[in-house]
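Quick one, T. Sequence first:
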Amino acid sequence: MSFRLITDKDIPAYQALLHSAYQATTQLGIHFAAAAIKQSQIADHIESNAVYLFEKDGELLSTLSIRFPWGNNPGPYGLPHLGWFATAPRYKGQGYGNALWDFVEQQILINQLKLPAVTLGTAANHPWLAQTYINKGYKKIGQADLTSDHTTLYFEKILNHKSYTEWKKRSNKQ
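Structure tokens:
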């Protein structure tokens, strides 16, 4: 089992993982972009975002993307933004998604990138995702009506209080 960044050769398996993982959400009437993403859109996505994979014996089990403020699809708050979190349906409930999430949060966001905070968004009408993020320490900071089928709730998690305070001071001056 290993965590790693995506490569171009992973695109077909990554697309299949996203499509299968997001089917249940689509059946709820919530249409996230990842549910029907095309390979060309994935290529664009991995060009300016960090996409982490959790794999076992060459099979993709789970994925999580970090969208950067300078990338092609920045989050709304000027901070890196997590998205396209998915676990292959046959591996749900086995802890693989949480293991990847914890790795990305601890090893990448905190230890490597030294981020003050990170954001994410999810559908307000999804039956359990908002509570999952709250349980992981994220706090609701806003919402927006970006699509006709759901309101997006935005969450933030402060990863380093000292650097967050400094970042807020600088961002409020601009």
